[in-house]
Structure to design on (84 residues):
């Protein structure tokens, strides 16, 4: 009997998959916003790209997602555009 792998649910809730790359939210947006500048709050509003060096680990933590199926490409290249 083959054992199934569990998906890291916290990761799936935090990562968005776009057509070409992985996206994540910005940090420092939950509390103590009075002391933060308007410029900083505005810059952290959008989603950011996940760094290329983290993509293989993310694919490993989400075994049944689209990311995992592209694992063979990830092993040969670190380019985000080629992985996704």
């Amino acid at each position: 009997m083959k054992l199934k792998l569990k998906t890291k649910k916290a990761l799936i809730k935090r990562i968005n998959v776009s057509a070409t790359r992985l996206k994540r939210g910005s940090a420092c947006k939950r509390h103590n916003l009075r002391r933060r500048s308007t410029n900083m709050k505005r810059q952290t509003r959008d989603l950011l790209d996940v760094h290329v060096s983290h993509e293989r680990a993310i694919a490993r933590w989400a075994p049944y997602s689209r990311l995992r199926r592209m694992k063979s490409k990830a092993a040969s290249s670190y380019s985000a555009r080629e992985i996704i």
About this structure: The longest strand covers residues 15-17. Strands lie at 15-17, 22-24, 48-49.
